[in-house]
From TrEMBL, chain A:
Residues 4-233 form the ABC transporter domain. GO terms for molecular function: ATP binding; ATP hydrolysis activity; branched-chain amino acid transmembrane transporter activity. Keywords: Amino-acid transport, ATP-binding, Nucleotide-binding, Transport. The keyword Nucleotide-binding applies. It holds the Pfam family ABC_tran. Belongs to the ABC transporter superfamily. This is ABC transporter ATP-binding protein.
From TrEMBL, chain B:
GO terms for cellular component: plasma membrane. It comes from Ruegeria pomeroyi. It is found in: Cell membrane. Keywords: Amino-acid transport, Cell membrane, Membrane, Transmembrane, Transmembrane helix, Transport. GO terms for molecular function: transmembrane transporter activity. It comes from the Bacteria. This is Branched-chain amino acid ABC transporter permease.
């Protein structure tokens, strides 16, 4: 059974329709990549899953349960967590406090502060520094750590590479690979097709609010995904 | 020289009371980014509630301070949860208009019940009792109010910095959208903040009515004091409000010595100077959006 099932999801911002009949599923322990250009609807879809954005038609199920009317707070307690685009840290609070906000949800599990610091030793020495004073890469690690501290069943990761130097992106993706090895269920939004295919088991390529192509992630899929990404006929 | 010391000490003591007026407003603005125009009326309502309770119960008014604070806490929660939360949006205007409407309703309600007379809460001889140090007379009541404010600010600081609830409040003040991902119900945090603000406002109103007099029309002046405190002190920290309270009180006390007919004029001029020369206040943080 799929952990997350989405059927025919439509979402609008006023008169503008951002998603058209999206259907996808995520199995437990699987890493899914959502690829697509700017404005393809990836973040809108992720926000709808996390309960932050409204959708207007369709069905969302988590472990077989309809979560269509659940608030983001209820979804967080059910085990959905998110690393938002732009990191969105509480910049006036320390690194440790940002992580504690995740732990305050009270779900318990493997991800405690020391486990996050083992994953990201870079931020361990900055535990008491205000998060706003960290570099972009360090902030991304804190954002990922904060989401992990909720001990999620399903982790949504939105554009972790945005605005970061390639070497820092490598570091963050190495951490995502570690999470994948731990069988953490991940949905990773990414514009970089190669990185997305490298880290994931399956992919969904979105174009103008629709799933243009879906399949198993493999280096051989790169050309087909590239064509779908830019709206070229296969 | 003794005049200077007198001004400094009396300004310091009065500053504690002013800081309490500003505290609620700075909490509300810091977390919800709105201004509660009914803040002054809630302070006055607290004082009048104590006046009523004190007149009907055989206990000293000081004992009733926490009782009225709890009542104000409940009123604040109710106002936020049932009214203000319904109009909160990216546009602060609906909330501003709603709290303006609440201030008018509360003021008229108080006039209806209590009339327009000046009132003071009788706490006996404590009100005027004092002691002398080095030729300077210190009042017990102003000193007690200053210390009470200091203790309350300290407790609030500890609560905000070292408790789960405090973390939730500070996180909500920084990003009210994203906290939902961590199970925090923003509107409950808003209700809690408004409740705390109403409790502190009511306390400030009661303490003022012990030191001086109030009428149902005193709310606007108290609101102005609260605004001046947070502008002069700066936003971003409750201690900035404390500094703002002391600074404004020093200006008021000094102007009463040297130009008794000026009323609150020099306080208002200080506000203007800060807005022109240091809009972030004494200890506020510069926020760029």
């Amino acid at each position: 059974m799929s952990m997350l099932e989405i059927e025919n999801l439509d979402a609008r911002y006023g008169d503008f329709q951002a998603l058209f009949g999206i259907s996808l599923n995520v199995r437990r322990g699987e890493t899914i990549a959502l690829v697509g250009a700017n404005g393809a609807g990836k973040t809108t879809l992720l926000r709808a899953i996390a309960g932050l954005g409204q959708y207007h038609a369709g069905v969302l199920r988590l472990n077989g349960r309809d979560i269509g009317s659940a608030s983001p707070q209820e979804l967080a307690r059910m085990g959905i967590s998110m690393v938002p685009e732009g990191r969105r840290l509480f910049t006036g609070m320390s690194v440790a406090e940002n992580l504690m906000i995740g732990a305050d949800l009270g779900r318990g599990g493997h991800w405690v502060r020391d486990a996050v610091f083992d994953l990201f030793p870079e931020i361990a020495v900055m535990a008491h520094r205000p998060a706003g004073l960290l570099s972009g890469g360090q902030q991304q690690m804190v954002s990922l750590g904060r989401a992990l501290m909720t001990n999620p069943d399903l982790l949504l990761v939105d554009e972790v590479s945005l605005g970061l130097a390639p070497v820092v992106v490598d570091r963050v993706y190495a951490a995502l690979a570690q999470l994948k090895e731990r069988k953490t269920t991940l949905v990773v939004v990414e514009q970089d097709i190669r990185r997305a295919l490298d880290v994931s088991d399956r992919f969904y390529c979105m174009l103008s609010g629709r799933v243009a192509l879906a399949g198993a992630s493999a280096p051989a899929a790169f050309d087909a995904v590239s064509r779908a990404y830019f709206g070229e006929a296969a | 020289m003794s005049i200077v010391i007198d001004i400094l000490i009396n300004g310091l003591f009065l500053g504690g009371l002013y800081a309490l007026f500003g505290l609620g407003l700075t909490l509300i603005f810091g977390v919800m980014r709105i201004a509660n125009i009914a803040h002054g009326e809630i302070a006055v309502a607290g004082a009048l509630a104590l006046f009523t309770l004190g007149g009907n119960l055989p206990v000293h008014p000081l004992v009733l301070l926490p009782v009225v604070m709890v009542l104000a806490f409940g009123l604040g929660w109710l106002l936020q949860a049932q009214l203000i939360n319904r109009v909160l949006s990216a546009d602060p205007m609906p909330a501003l208009l709603l709290t303006f409407g609440l201030s008018v309703v509360l003021q008229n309600l108080m006039v209806e019940i209590y009339g327009a007379d000046n009132r003071s809460i009788d706490i006996g001889t404590i009100k005027t009792a004092g002691f002398q140090i080095g030729g300077v007379t210190l009042g017990y009541l102003p000193l007690a109010i200053f210390l009470l404010a200091l203790v309350l600010f300290g407790l609030l600081h500890l609560g905000l910095q070292h408790t789960r609830l405090g973390r939730a409040i500070r996180a909500t003040s920084q990003d009210a959208d994203i906290v939902a991902l961590f199970g925090i119900r923003q509107k409950r945090v808003f209700a809690l903040v408004m409740a705390l603000a109403a409790g502190f406002a009511a306390l400030a109103g009661m303490l003022l009515a012990m030191r001086s007099t109030i009428t149902p029309f005193s709310g606007a002046e108290r609101l102005l004091i609260a605004f001046e405190v947070i502008v002069i002190g700066g936003l971003g920290s409750i201690w900035a409000s404390y500094l703002g309270g002391i600074a404004l009180a020093l200006v008021h006390v000094a102007s009463f010595y040297f130009d008794p007919a000026s009323g609150l004029l020099y306080g208002h001029l200080t506000l203007l100077l800060f807005l022109l020369l240091r809009p972030q206040g004494i200890a506020g943080k510069v926020v760029t959006r």
